[in-house]
Amino acid sequence: MDYEVILAEKDAIIAAQNVLLEKVILDTSNRIQQLEHELAQLKKMIFGSKRERFLAEVNSNQLSLFSSDEITIADPVVDKQHIEYDRKTPKKHPGRTALPDHLPVEEIVIEPEEDTTGMKRIGEEITETLDYT
Question: Would you say residue 127 has pLDDT above 70?
Answer without folding.
Answer: yes
